[in-house]
Design brief:
alpha/beta, eight-stranded mixed β-sheet, two-stranded antiparallel ribbon, globular
Amino acid sequence: MSEEKFFAGRHTAGVTGGLGFAAVFPKADGRVFPLRVTGGKLVGRRLRAPSGGRVRPSADRVRESVFATMGPLDGARVLDLYAGSGALGIEALSRGAEHGVFVERAASPLGTLRRNLAQLGLRDRSSVLRSDVRSAIRQLGRRGECYDLILMDPPYASEEAEKAMAAVLEAGILSAGGTLVLEASRHHLPEEVAGLERLDARRYGDTVMLRFRNCNGCGGAE
């Protein structure tokens, strides 16, 4: 392998069932907007998106809403899993995180990710691991790494989310009380994972952003 606090759940008129979704439905008029950083020191800067349509970068409107309601990220260590273009982790770095580790396996998005970090002047505050996610998690655990915020955007319609969340806890790489943010499809929501307390979930069209808190701490389950 080569190296290279969030929003509080608010109940609104848009809450769906017992899941605690705060639904947000912006206008959809068919227009396509460039991918941009939505806040912090790099606000407005464009991000490249991988070609080919196999990677689904988090929409600007979703990232802006999620990060705008987080607590301060100053000094945070961030891990971006299934990083793709790096949009989620770059957003965290723009908003004050100290360092970000980006994990991506596929060659095309990996190249895009590296270009985004270079063009935004973030290479000295970031590391890139070319690896599948669970192997990277195990390696980071063996190194004794620990993160305050873990961002995950796994493929929809797969069991990757549950497996990766369980691996995070087993490896002990999320700090005590640390936050794990998962982007998922409303049609394929993950099962609960012991050791992670789900705090809230927000729906943006077909996308659901879920926030979990680690009930344990770095070094593995107690």
